[in-house]
Amino acid sequence: MNKESGAKKKEAIRQEKRKIKKEIRKKIEESKLQKAAATNGFLKKRLEAEKTAKNNDKPNSTTPQRPVNRPSNTTAPRYKQGKPVKQTYQQITQKPQQQKESEAEQMPLNKYIAHAGICGRREAADLVKEGKVKVNGSIVYEPGYKVGAADKVVFKGKQLYAQKNPVYILLNKPKDYITTAKDPEGRKTVLDLLKGATDERIYPVGRLDRNTTGVLVLTNDGELAQKLTHPSFEIKKIYEVRLDKPVAKKDLEAILAGVTLEDGFINADAVSYADAKDKSVIGIEIHSGRNRIVRRIFEHLGYDVKNLDRVMFANLTKKNVDRGKWRFLTEKEVRLLKYMNKSFVRNKKEE
């Protein structure tokens, strides 16, 4: 009996739940219908209002109308505006011509490296095959790979710059020649001594006074010229100075310790007698490129410079080059200059 009564109770509960769900669904349906009716009524009213507004906007037949100004010629243009004009022959052929010039400016990678002064073409080919050269961020293994000025060629983390026709000349400058490409006063310049040496436009690296003689480099390599003259690189220079009287030892010590001139403090890297028998001839090593610096040092100490000769510049000497003569630099010399060999750059750690 207890089981039957329990089953009846459960059934009654189920029926009650079903009844409640039906009532909920019925209320939901009624709510939806009410909302739909309200929406339809709103839309109906809106449509009627718009229709009434349109009727009010229509002009009456008795109201005079303004004449409508229409263009006399309503014919559409034959061609749309902005249509490109036919290209001329020059315009058509311009791009291929530029492309030809671009291809002509390119060169094999090993040749590019050689023109950058790193090594010869054969050695450059080996460097490429060994995967030591990158072009535009990627390693290239083919020596004949074509590159140009727009490409970024890197060797040992340093970007290379190739000159089409790089020229490097060492001149043993004589007196009475101006260190410039052209003198407005018409005086003799160092380029007068190099007529016929090259068709390239070259210029002096740094400056030697009119009456100063010795080693002078001329080139068309702007990057190298900037390195050799920029104060931050402190390129070594050695001069032989002939003075009007013997130089006292205390003055040599003063030059080595440093003196203060009108444009600041300066000291020599090394200084000594060039001739033990003639103490009026001094050898001085200095890194500064300030104007007339050697002359001004000795003038500051009461000496008159009779002759000033630069015997070494960046490890280049005038050996086997007579006064007023010149020679081309060797590939090895150019490489040493480009990579700033320690032998001619002052070592600041020694100070």
TrEMBL record:
Pfam families: PseudoU_synth_2, S4. Residues 107-175 form the RNA-binding S4 domain. Residues 58-76 have a biased composition (Polar residues). It comes from the Bacteria. Residues 1-20, 25-105 are annotated as: Disordered. InterPro entries: PsdUridine_s_RsuA/RluB/E/F_cat, PsdUridine_synth_cat_dom_sf, PsdUridine_synth_RsuA/RluA, PsdUridine_synth_RsuA/RluB/E/F, PsdUridine_synth_RsuA/RluB_CS, RsuA_PseudoU_synthase, S4_RNA-bd, S4_RNA-bd_sf. Residues 86-97 have a biased composition (Low complexity). Keywords: Isomerase, RNA-binding. One of its GO terms (biological process) is enzyme-directed rRNA pseudouridine synthesis. The keyword Calcium does not apply. Residues 1-15, 45-57 have a biased composition (Basic and acidic residues). GO terms for molecular function: RNA binding; rRNA pseudouridine synthase activity. Its EC number is 5.4.99.-. Belongs to the pseudouridine synthase RsuA family. This is Pseudouridine synthase. It comes from Panacibacter microcysteis.
